[in-house]
Design a protein that fits this description.
Blueprint (H helix, E strand, L loop, with lengths): L1 E2 L3 H8 L2 H9 L7 E2 L5 H4 L12 H10 L14 H7 L3 H10 L10 H8 L2 H10 L14 H8 L2 H7 L9 H6 L4 H9 L14 H7 L3 H9 L21 H9 L9 H9 L10 H7 L10 E2 L3 H9 L3 H7 L8 E7 L2 E6 L15 E4 L5 E4 L2 E2 L8 E2 L3 E4 L5 E5 L12 E5 L2 E5 L15 E5 L5 E3 L3 E2 L4 E3 L2 E5 L2 E5 L2 E3 L7 E2 L2 E6 L4 E7 L2
Parallel strand pairs: 1-2, 16-23
Antiparallel strand pairs: 3-11, 4-5, 6-7, 7-10, 8-9, 10-11, 12-13, 13-14, 14-15, 17-20, 18-19, 19-22, 20-21, 22-23
Keywords: ANK repeat, Repeat
InterPro entries: Ankyrin_rpt (IPR002110), Ankyrin_rpt-contain_sf (IPR036770), Gal_Oxase/kelch_b-propeller (IPR011043), Kelch-typ_b-propeller (IPR015915)
Pfam families: Ank_2
């Protein structure tokens, strides 16, 4: 009987062993087949990262004991044993085979069985007996070489190394199940840590996708390019789901402005609920951006605190308090039923922490510092570029500091590099009226007093650069990539040079052309 998704299917995809057992005890139908041909055992392989699921074996054992079908296949050719194999859960593969699942779904040769379940001697015998043993692909498109990498057995992989096939996939295969030692061994063999697949994805992106923290550490230790982009402009930090990995990437120089807003919110506040809990009095008294009068000035507005904690859009706050009428605005964009307006009334925009081009710096104490950033774009009624500094303690609490714009100009798409007790803030897109095209703005923020000072530099600077990468090497900050505005041009040009700022002399040097 074909069914829609039921409570048992939902519990199986969640990997909720206790709930599955309770539902079965209450009479749930373990023999269901729902839309798409999915049955209980197949559903148990989806809905989460089963490579990290510590309860999967117990869950599969329960389903086997209760008589679940072992060899069901979805409309898309998915089987429980096939998915377990692809995800590197060879313990589950073994369990299913022992229970009577059909091994033909794996398309394994004897050497593949030896790699997954046998000894080193078994692998040696297969290499001796099987003709072209290493050039067979299984149902998961793996050769014996790639299978050994996903398994993480270096001794077996060494036997297959000389006649390896699909070498360009090697690093990717080792990160699926976070085989850090295997990855380090491959790197020692000369495999390129910055290799990209046909979509421009790198092993670091794959490691982030799979929450493979040991592999991330190995790649960072090998000098991987943390800001390399894929075919669609994504970089590794956009693939992060794990707070620990996010901190590792930021510390290694990843461009924090590229991280997803939801991940930023979880990292800084621990909150993913965007409900705005504030009353109208707090909204009216704190809804606008204010500059500090001191360097720094602690800014204490309950509305700002609520906006940080919720990560709400300015428009959400306006709608909540029915503050949607701006006295003077002009329509700048219309598409179907969507219209965009620019605020020309002179009224300050509603304050928001949900920003683009905001830097994030990880402090040795475990806290974080964010700076500036812009809300939406110039056509939005609440467009604003900020100059605040917000210090998070790493446990959800924070302090907001404001500054006079004459001390610290509203800044977005800059870089922020921690050097000892200071964070060096380089570059800016900013408002058009503050751009000085022969200058690269450089500030430094003291990490205890949070006082900001502008730093004078000399030498051949990048100009008005933004959206760039910054890396610290000794006493030198290296600036690469990004975009540069020149001579009041409305369109920026790509930066193809590397610029070095010597922090001892504060002198810029243009280095080499990037290929």
């Amino acid at each position: 009987m074909i069914e829609e998704k039921n409570d048992l299917a939902t519990a199986l995809e969640a990997g909720d062993l206790q709930q599955v057992r309770q539902l079965l005890n209450e009479g749930a139908n373990i023999h269901y087949s729902r839309d798409g041909g999915y049955d209980a055992l197949i559903d148990a392989m989806f809905g989460r990262n089963i490579a990290r699921d510590g309860h999967l074996i117990a869950l599969v054992k329960l389903l086997i004991e209760r008589g679940a079908a072992l060899n069901g296949m979805s409309r898309y050719g998915e089987t429980a044993i096939g998915v377990a194999s692809r995800q590197g859960r060879f313990d589950v593969v073994r369990l299913l085979l022992d229970a009577g699942a059909d091994g033909d779904y794996l398309s394994w040769t004897p050497i593949m069985y030896a790699i997954a379940f046998g000894s080193v001697d078994d692998v040696k015998r297969c290499l001796h007996d099987e003709v072209d043993a290493q050039f067979w692909w299984d149902a998961a498109s793996r050769t014996p070489w790639l299978l050994s990498l996903q398994l993480g057995d270096i001794t077996k992989a060494e036997l297959l190394y000389e006649n390896r096939k699909d070498a360009d996939k090697s690093l990717f295969q080792s990160v699926i199940n976070d085989k850090g030692r295997m990855l380090s061994w491959l790197i020692s063999k000369g495999f390129d840590v910055n290799v990209a697949d046909e979509y421009g994805h790198t092993p670091l992106m794959a490691a982030c996708d799979n929450d493979a923290i040991e592999c991330v550490k190995a790649l960072l230790a090998a000098g991987v390019d943390v800001n390399k982009t894929g075919e669609y402009g994504d970089c590794a930090i956009k693939h992060v789901n794990d707070r620990r990995i996010l901190c590792l990437l930021i510390d290694a120089g990843a461009n924090s402005a590229e991280m997803e807003q939801e991940m930023r919110q979880l990292l800084l506040t621990g909150n993913v609920d965007d409900t705005l809990e504030i009353d109208n009095i707090c909204y009216e008294s704190g809804k606008h951006r204010r500059f500090g009068d001191k360097n720094p000035q602690s800014m204490k507005f309950p509305f700002w605190d609520a906006m940080i904690y919720s990560g709400a859009y300015a428009s959400t706050a306006r709608q909540k308090f029915h503050d949607t009428n701006i006295s003077e605005k002009e329509e700048v964009y219309t598409s179907g039923n969507l219209s965009r307006y620019r605020n020309i009334s002179g009224e300050e925009p509603v304050w928001s922490f949900r920003r683009f081009g905001q830097s994030l710096t990880h402090l040795p104490s475990g806290g974080f510092v964010t700076m500036g950033g812009e809300y939406e774009d110039w056509y939005d009624e609440d467009f604003c570029i900020y100059n605040d500094v917000i210090v998070f303690d790493g446990n959800g609490s924070f302090t907001i500091y404001g500054y006079p714009p004459t001390i610290f100009s509203p800044t977005d798409f800059h870089s922020a590099t921690l050097v000892g007790d200071y964070i060096y803030i380089i570059g800016n897109l900013g408002y058009p009226e503050v751009r000085e095209f022969s200058e690269t703005p450089v500030y430094r923020l003291h990490c205890e007093s949070f006082k900001i000072e502008k730093v004078k530099t000399k030498g051949e600077n990048p100009g008005w650069i933004f959206k760039h990468n910054a890396h610290l090497n000794g006493d030198v900050i290296s600036i690469s990539a990004g975009e540069i505005l020149k001579n009041n041009q409305s369109k920026s040009r790509k930066n193809h040079h590397i610029f070095l700022l010597n922090l001892r002399t504060m002198r810029w040097e243009r280095k080499v052309m990037q290929p």
